[in-house]
Amino acid sequence: QLGYMFFGIAIGIGVAALARTLYESLSARKSPLARPAVYACGLLVLLPAVGFSRNYYHNDRSNNRIAYNYAYNTLACCDKDAVLFTSGDNDTYPLWAMQEVFDFRKDVRVVNLSLLGADWYIWQRKEQFGVPIPLSRDQILIQSNDMTGRTEVRPPKSFMDRARGEQTYLMPRLAKDRIVTVPQMLVDEVVLENRWKYPLYFSAPPYRESPLKLADRAVSVGLVYRLDKDPAPGRIDVNKGFELFTRTFINTGYASSKPYRDENATNVLVTYGYNTSNLYDELIRTGDTARALELFDTISVKYPEYWQLPLQVASLHDARHDSARAEQVLTRLRDTLAAFHAASPTNLTYISDYGMILTEIGKRHKDQGMIQAGIALMWQGFEGNPNSALAFRKLVSALGQTGDMAGAQKAARMIAEYKINQNDGYVQRLSGITPPSGIQIPEE
Q1: Separation CA 40–CA 47 (nearest Å)
Q2: Which residues contact 40 (CB under 8 A, 6 or more apart)?
Q3: How far is the C-alpha of 421 from the C-alpha of 205, rounded, in Å?
Q4: Which residues pair with 201 in a beta bridge?
Q5: Which residues have C-beta within 8 Å of that of residue 277, sequence separation ≥ 6?
Q6: Half-sphere exposure of 75 (CA within 13 A, CB side)
Q7: What is the pLDDT of residues 216-239, one digit of tens each?
């Protein structure tokens, strides 16, 4: 970056102009340094090489297939003509690219909840993409409305919010001391208007405050959540999920630590691992140990950096009194995370994960040195981003298991400095704070 900075200054000054000025000035004084000064200015063109050598690895995307794989796998989870609600940029842009550039699964109608508060986007989803939104143009598009002595900016016509039984405008409003957002109202309206005609999916579990109890109807299917009229036990589609993870999904590049990944990239992948862990638990719960271990064998090869599933499998082997196999699973995970951490030493997720597995193995061997080394790494990963719920929970879990409640309370106070985290009951218990008073803004 320093090289690029100096090169930018050189461009601003104008290397050629600088060389010419120096040459003319020195030549006028008949100085023997005239030509060497021009040659020295020419060396400035090499400055970008400094930045290139230091930044190439972090910017090389030639073998990074995370976005492509994520988009393909997410769309592959959806049934024909589905409506898929996504949360934001990271889980939407790859889908748009897969549909528009690679012409894959264009039948799936993607609805970005972050944009669903914009009137033009709502109208576009309704008119151009056929999303079942029952509101009319005058109930959606915002304009200035002249009232008695004042002007209101809102849609000219109200609508019946059927989920809450209220006549209202399509604008954020208070309902029972909570803010109801436009995306929340529209999700409920789409569900009611759809009447189970089209499959409805979410890239993350739907918001819990819905009067329609959407979270209770959300069934995990691979990487997404499908609304079902009669949800399966455990709210997991076991058969389809197993087929997706072991037969359908593409995972090119996940097994290699060579492509650079920052926290955003690794945290996008956490969904992949989290859902495999839930599927594994459901297979074990129903006595299908063979498929549970097949799932683990597949994931350990395709996505070896994920830590939770190996811990679950190690516990299974321990329960079977096969400590040797449990040790083998954990050792392989430790070596994998060590490789990923070494390849991307600034990645806070890898720092925390590597520290976590060192702590786990240290506990098994009663190795206090390894435990403390692991906890130190987890502190480093958390302090690098004290707003990370994942890093926080890994750290306080390890601290709690080692009896360091003072450390756990310190971590809770750090994450509680971000007001959005003060509603977390776990944070409240550890830090001894009460939740913020006033209007509560629900998560999407």
Answers
A1: 12
A2: none
A3: 19
A4: 84, 226
A5: 308, 309, 312
A6: 25
A7: 999 999 999 999 999 988 899 999
76-135: pLDDT as tens digits: 999 999 999 999 888 899 999 999 999 999 999 999 999 999 999 999 999 999 999 999
Q: What is the pTM of this model?
A: 0.83
Degrees, nearest 5: CA angle 197-189-103: 55
Q: Is 79 left (phi over 0), alpha (psi -120 to 50) or beta?
A: beta
Q: Are 243 and 274 in contact (CB under 8 A)?
A: no
Mapped to the 3 state alphabet, what secondary structure does the chain carry?
A: CHHHHHHHHHHHHCHHHHHHHHHHHHHHCCCCCHHHHHHHHHHHHHHHHHHHHHHHHHHCCCCCCHHHHHHHHHHHCCCCCCEEEECCCCCCHHHHHHHHCCCCCCCCEEEECCCCCCHHHHHHHHHCCCCCCCCCHHHHCCEEEEECCEEEEECCCCEEECCCCEEECCCCEEECCEEECHHHHHHHHHHHHHCCCCCEEECCCCCCCCCCCHHHHEEEECCEEEECCCCCHHHECHHHHHHHHHHHCCCCCCCCCCCCCCHHHHHHHHHHHHHHHHHHHHHHHCCCHHHHHHHHHHHHHHCCCCCHHHHHHHHHHHHCCCHHHHHHHHHHHHHHHHHHHHHCCCCHHHHHHHHHHHHHHHHHHCCHHHHHHHHHHHHHHHHCCCCCHHHHHHHHHHHHHCCCHHHHHHHHHHHHCCHHHHHCHHHHHHHCCCCCCCCECCCC
Residue 65 CA neighbour count, 13 Å, CB half: 15
141 φψ region: left (φ > 0), alpha (ψ -120 to 50), beta (else): beta
CB atoms inside a 10 Å sphere around CB 301: 11
Distance between start and end Cα atoms, the chain: 38
Q: Do the Cβ atoms of 109 and 84 come closer than 8 Å? A: yes
Residue 180's Cα: distance from chain center in Å?
24
Which residues on neighbouring strands pair with residue 151, listed in sequence order?
146
Residue appearing with tokens 């994920």: 306
